[in-house]
Structure formats: C-alpha cells, structure tokens
Amino acid sequence: MDKDTTAPVIADYKNTEALPQFVWWALLLLFSWLYVGQYALEEVKPGLRSIGALIPEALSLLLFAVAIAHLGRNKRMELNPLYLLMIITYLLTLLAGWVASEVQPGAIANGIRTHLRTIPVFLLAVVMPIPVYKIRGLLLLLLFFAFLQIPVASYQRFIQYAHLRSGDPVSGTLHISSLLSIFLVCVVITIYAQYLKKRISGKTATLVCLALLLPAMLNETRGTIIILIVGLLAPAFAYARSTRSMKTFWRGLILGAMMIGVFDAIYAEMSSIYGKQNPSIFVAVYNEFVTRGFWKRMDSDKKVMAKEGVGRGDAVVLALENISKHPATFFFGMGAGSVLQIKQRAFLDDRASEFEEFGPRTTTVSYLLWEVGVLGLAAFFVTVVLVLRDAWSLSNVSGWVGAFALGWLGVTTVWMVSAMYKNLIGADALSYSYWLFSGYVARQAYRQKYGERQALNVS
User: Fold this and answer.
1) How does DSSP classify residue 420?
2) What is the pLDDT of residue 15?
3) Structural domain total, the chain
C-alpha cells in the first residue's frame, strides 16, 4: 500500500479576511475577457483589437491599486524576500536600459505596458487573502474555457479553414495555435496532478485530458508533444519522490503514455487525411526542431534574410551577438519597448524595424535578451525557479492545495521549456493566469514554511 508522507493541510483564510467582492468580480472579468471576450470582439469588429487590449491593462491597474492599498493598511507580506529582490532587479534593469539606450518616450510607454502588466496580479495574490474556494472557482472557470476550445477549434479546422492543409490557423480563442496548445497542456497537467494525488479516478482523468487535447491535435502544433511529456513527467517524479511510491509513479507514467499514444495516433490520422508525409508526431517534431526548425540560417556578418524567418536557436544567438557589442546593452538590453512591433509606428523607437529582421520576438529568451539584456533575463528566470521551488515544497501538503501545487510544478516546468519555444511575454491570457496563480503558490508556500508570524514587515 502506498505510504502518504505529505504534510498537514494548510488552514484556509479566516472569514474576517475574505476577498472583497469587487476584486473577485474583477478577476472573473479579467479571465473572461482574456479567454473569450477579446476573441469575440475581434470576430465582430477586427479593427478594435488594440482597444480591446486596454481592458485587461485597466483591470490590472485597478487590482494593483487594491493590492497597494491593502498592503498599506496591513504593512505585512507573506513572501520569500528573493521574489522582491528579483522584481526590484527587473525594474532597475528596465530603468537602466531606457537611460543607457536613450529610448524614446513612446517606446518606454509600450515597454511598461508589456513588461509590467502582470506584476499587479502577482502582487494581489501575495498580499491579499484569496480563499481556496475562490482559487478553485477561477480554475473551474479556466476549465470551462478549455472545454470551450473544443467546439471553436473544430469549427475552425473543419469549416472555417477546411480548405487549408495546415492546422496552423486553428487557435481556438487564443489567437495563436501554439498558445492554445500550451494552455490546454497546462490544464491537462493540473488534472493529471489531481489523479496522482488520488482526488479523481484514472478513468475520469484519461477521458477529460484526451478531450482537452483534441484542439491541440487539430492544430498539429509539433511542440505540443514536447511540453506535454515534460509537463507530465515533472509532477509524476515529484510525487513519487515525496511519497516514495513507485506504484503511483508507474501508474502515472502509464496514464501519460496512453495520452501521448492517442495524441500521436490522431495526429498521424489527420496528416493522412490532409495528404501530409508525417507518419508520427515524433518524426514531425524531429524534422521541426532538429533538422530545420530550430536552426534555419545564421550569419554573424550580415542581417538575416527574412524569406524563411528566423529559427528559435538563431533568434537567441543573434540577440546575444547584437547586444554584446556594448556592455550596457549586454546587461540591460536595448531598452524595454524598443523592439516591440506595434501598429502605431509613431510610437516606436526608430530602431524597431531594424531589430525585427533578427526575429527578436521569436521566443521569450530572445525577446528578453533584446529588451532587458542578460540581467533582465536572469531576474525573470530566477523568479520562475522560485515558483518552481515553492510549488515543489507545497506539493507535499495534503488536501486540494497540495494537489494544485503538484500540478503547478508541472505548469511551471512547461513555462520554462516554452520560453525557448514561444514568446510568452506578449501572451496576455497565459501570462496573467500564470502569475496570478504563481503568486498564490508563493504565499501559501511561505505560510506553510514559516506561518503567519514571520510575515515580512513593509512599514
């Protein structure tokens, strides 16, 4: 029989510390807009996308004001000081980059909007008491949005884009197919963790996960299989190590292998239907990331020609080559907002079009190197590693919180791997969701380790 060595359940917040109702509704509106509202607006009025993008930013500012006001009243924060150190380092790096590169005011404004918009939700989850049932409510809302992708993606693949051989336009409500796949894989991982913690049955987990992976099979995103494997292995390994339960470990691996096998079979069938020469998702992944997709063309002496685009590996190397020409840009980048491509060209830094030839927005790593340099990239990844460590620690807790933390361990692993796959900084829905729940994990991990009496005094 498996031995459960998990820690006791963390007590939920007292009723006297209940989350203000308007904050709860603001969070619901934020998630609803990011996952459905923006898509619906663009379907009705495509030209209003830039205006629709302001809604989550306005809500984020509101939540930031609420968090600061709450912090001002309580003057205490339950958070590992290393998080604050990394946030301060990132902010100082932004400032240094703007000054060193003499970035134009319009580009600075766009840099602030891009790099700082998710900090408020992280801070909110850290300083304000969010009860477990509220977190579960938000996750159930995301689960609903995940299931909503099935009919939307099916419509896109078999009706809207039925004339196309490629599944790339199949993006559900998230605008980009790869972002849809990352979102669905993250949802699958959280459900898989509930199974590992014996909170749902294997049959339920298998059926739900396979259903949620259907849109990812339809859009034929090759990177899905990589992040799925990594995301499933991380919680399985963590749970087996914490409980010393090899039985559960192998049971989890078998369930994961079944999901991957079905995914591969459906991918091969879809390739056959559309006349593609991809007998297996694994062959397609090898071709995409090893033989031609990761490194397309590199030339350190002249600009990259844009006919085939820039490979993911190329983008990182080209970023390092360009920012290394001066110590200031190496450490602080070209300045946040200076390489952001937007429609309002009048607000862009004059160098933005020049940078674009090097594919700065290809991946998270390349984008951060260009805009905030090595220091900014390091601060970003150290913060993610802190979340990973807190999720690992909190996963030993019994009850729902421990199961959620175990899933978040897998999600954070996917987040790290995806940094070399896509640019997540501009992925609003994924970024807001990730940093809100990461803030919750960070606070709960601190409470589990130190209790309430050792909260940081910010007075």
Assistant:
1) T
2) 40
3) 1
Determine what percent of the chain is predicted with pLDDT higher than 90.
44
Give the three-state DSSP class for 165.
Answer: coil
Here the tokens at position 152 are 């939307």
The whole-angstrom separation of Cα 330 and Cα 356 is 18
Q: Is the Cβ–Cβ distance between 430 and 436 less than 8 Å?
A: no
Q: What is the DSSP letter of 399?
A: S
| Helix residue ranges per DSSP H, 338-363 | 352-356
Output the CA torsion 135→137→140→146 (10° steps). -80
Give residue-wise pLDDT tens across range 100-132: 988 888 889 889 989 999 999 999 999 998 999
Contact 248, 194 (CB under 8 A): no
Distance CA 40, CA 54 (A): 15
Does residue 434 lie within any of the structural domains? yes
392 contacts 116 by C-beta, under 8 angstroms: no
In a domain, 73, yes or no: yes
Assigned token pair, 235:
């919680």
355 found inside a domain: no
Helix (H, G, I), strand (E, B) or coil at 397: strand
> What confidence category does residue 265 fall into, taking pLDDT thresholds of 50, 70 and 90?
confident
- Which among 7, 14, 26 is positioned nearest to 67, based on CA atoms? 26
